[in-house]
Amino acid sequence: MSELEPDTPHVPAPSLWPIGFAIGIACLLVGLVVSQAALVIGLVLALVFGVLWVRDLRGSRPAAAPAPAKPLVATEADLGATTDRATFLSLATVGVGGLIGAGVTLPVLGFGVLPSFVGDSVKSEEVDLGPISNFPEGEYVIATYLEDPEVGEVTRRTAFVRNNGRTEDGAPSFTTIYSRCVHLGCPVQPNGPIDEEAMKEVNGVQLRPVLAASFGCPCHGGLYDSEGNRSAGPPVRSLDRYEFSIRNGNLILGRLFSVGGVDGAGAKARISKYYRAYPGVHVDGIEKWFYPIPTPGSTG
Amino acid sequence: MVLPDSDPGLDGLMAKSTRRKQLEAVALYPVDWVEERSGLVGYTKWFLFRKVPHDISWAQTLGSATLTAFIVQAVTGVVLAFYYKPDPASAYASVQNITEEVTLGWLVRGMHKWGASVFIILLFFHMARTFLFGAYKYPRELNWIVGVLLLALGMLEGFTGYLLPWDNTAYWATVVGINLNATAPIAGPFLAQFLQGGLDIGSDTLAKFYALHMLLLPGAIMALIGLHLYLVVRLGVTSPPWSSTAAGRERPEANGSRQGLIREPGSPATDGEG
Fold first, then answer.
1. Which pTM does this prediction carry?
2. What is the ipTM of this complex?
3. So what CATH class is B58-233?
4. Would the pLDDT of B266 be above 60?
5. Rounded to a whole number, what is the distance in Å from the CA of A30 to chain B's nearest CA?
6. A-chain residue closest to B188, CA distance
């Protein structure tokens, strides 16, 4: 019998090339982070061993059984004449069933997925932090507030706000840092004594002055300088910031944005600004190619 | 009850055995009734009473142990759901209530919490056994794949369940977990936004995790366990690698081919061709 026995093992012959292929891939991935030379070497290794592996696999494949001879009788389908009744009915059943299924499934699937990406869930609220006189120049203030008081504690957010005086153009300057670590989103803490006695409550916002020369994250040891630039640890960019405006003498925090890096300090700082990205997501450098599409809501 | 005949002779014995037959018929009647209409008794026998290699050991019971751990999780989870409230304002308080106030709540919550670790640990032991014994090889590759899917679903159960106590550990661990997902290239940020139902963890995140944890994921796990067990029964249990009588061994004239790998020695195919 030329046909394969049903219990013939369908296993290709052993091959050592996958080991080289795996080493190549590992080298490539390490190179992606460490150096471009290692990346190229890894790529070449992976390609060479991959080709060898595939050649091995193709060489060891057992010969396929010869196709059974076609009967020398033309059927109606061969002649392209008609579709018979049974075929039509089964196709119609599948088609109509598929339509009904899609009609039920798609709205449910949409309801399950879309609300995370549209409407209220991606709307950003402005926050009124009260009169700017509460923010002494050159000193950080921890501002804690509820983004949406109706929803409650789960929307509690913290900002670190520093009054920088005025820029060279005479515009008011504030450093408005969002407290979430850009490694994986834990709450960053200011490193310095908090002046609890000077705490104020201004329309639901709690303000506490702090002498912060740096910010640290308790989860994985990320450390940032006073401008929010990474000085140590795993974070991939500088701390996120708020857009801000001043209305009737009150400081208003607006949308959040992500920061690639900050040059200079205080009122003279030059901030490279990007759309709001998730913690751990690169906004600049070669790694940003991994995240080509911003999620809805992050761009505002 | 009918007293036996005063004469304890042959007649008495005969009567007793007739009565026993009658009792057996009465007991078996419902079984036969079900079997005639469904064939389920036959399937149950096919499932439960099957041949296994003579040299298997306790190592082959790890799968059943994992299944038992899952059943414990399912049952305790249902009971916990009687008292748990998946809403940001009351979730924490309801968990405290279960632990402190509800009778035996501390026990059932403890079983569910520690049982989760037991389930995952047993899963890994079961997987290690399968790997080290080579029990994932032809023709059982599909069952390995189903098992890996079960492992992934089990980990997702752990991830979604961790948020439910809604304390600081749960909240920040989930923030970190979701943001880890967000670092995956291209689709990562979208996955994170779907999981937390917006740009940050919000009021819907808890209910979403609760629904995934107790409806979607357990349903998928149960379906895959069914498939997993079907494949175990269909393909049989593998002999250990050191077995002297394992299928595929002791085949002097096999011409180098590995034909008949899944046949037991002594079956017609092996003897005829070997």
1. 0.77
2. 0.74
3. mainly alpha
4. no
5. 16
6. A291
